[in-house]
């Protein structure tokens, strides 16, 4: 097969040695080209170009943001996406069953390609851009913004940095005095969300080796799930985090709105609200319109 190995050399877990070893392993049985990303949006253009010239697989060694860009370049083509963990958290790679260590994951990838384990999977889409695992609006996007302001620290203090940013954002960088958006979909909705996550897969993220599961029902072969927090009070947040660490996902109640198997939904702000896509901060918006797109992307899945 023809494989493009797409590498973000700035990603947290990527080293020159790792890149060479992965390229060598893939090249034992396949025609492999190497491309390095150099700026935001570059991975999308490289992936789109590879698909247009007959490449069979684009293997991405980088973080979730680079993987998202490549996926957007491959949607609707016959070229398949293969994930390799190169970031600080690697949510999507781990969600589909890959090891969090790049060389171990490469062995899994080689075996999957040999077995032709390639499937068409569904993606979420919001305002013209696709996402692999989730879109966060409100508080969690504000946390991602604080992390990205300190991007140089992610390579050395990834998970502690996210914990610190979450606490700092809750205390100083997010207005907790009023709801920020309405949520509307075919099953209903709410008018008082402070923080909304739309999920295409689960878990929401990982903290070290521990998955934080918001919606186990969210998988690549069914519609979107939404989890909207209707308060950011200390007691509610403490209770939610305690449940997540115990493996308990939130249920629909007076404090949290939860719905599954959605094909469309709309978030409308009471003013601009921040949002992030697959861990990539995209800035403030006034509204977001989501849809679920079945069989949008060909994906190499580990055995």
Integer count of domains: 2
Number of beta strands:
16
Report the CATH topology name of the largest domain: Tumour Suppressor Smad4
Rg value: 19 Å
Span from first to last CA? 18 Å
Q: Give, in order, the helices and strands.
A: EHEHEHEHHEEEHHEEEEEEHEEE
Question: Any idea what the shape is?
Answer: globular
Percent of residues in beta strands: 35-45%
Q: At CATH's second level, what is the architecture of the largest domain?
A: Sandwich
How many individual helices?
A: 8
Descriptive notes:
The protein has 2 domains: 2-116, Probable inorganic polyphosphate/atp-NAD kinase, domain 1 (Rossmann fold); 131-294, Tumour Suppressor Smad4 (Sandwich), CATH 2.60.200.40. It has helices spanning 16-27, 42-52, 64-74, 91-95, 102-114, 139-148, 154-173, 234-245, and strands at residues 2-7, 31-36, 57-62, 80-85, 118-126, 129-131, 134-138, 181-185, 188-193, 195-199, 205-207, 210-212, 224-229, 256-262, 264-277, 280-300. 46% of the residues are buried. The mean pLDDT is 92. The chain contains 8 helices and 16 strands. Strands 5, 6, 7, 8, 9, 10, 13, 14, 15 and 16 form a 10-stranded antiparallel sheet that branches. It starts with a strand and ends with a strand.
Describe the SSE topology.
Elements: E1 2-7, H1 16-27, E2 31-36, H2 42-52, E3 57-62, H3 64-74, E4 80-85, H4 91-95, H5 102-114, E5 118-126, E6 129-131, E7 134-138, H6 139-148, H7 154-173, E8 181-185, E9 188-193, E10 195-199, E11 205-207, E12 210-212, E13 224-229, H8 234-245, E14 256-262, E15 264-277, E16 280-300
Parallel strand pairs: 1-2, 1-3, 3-4
Antiparallel strand pairs: 5-6, 5-16, 7-10, 7-15, 8-9, 8-15, 10-13, 11-12, 13-14, 15-16
Helix pairs in contact: 1-5, 2-3, 6-7
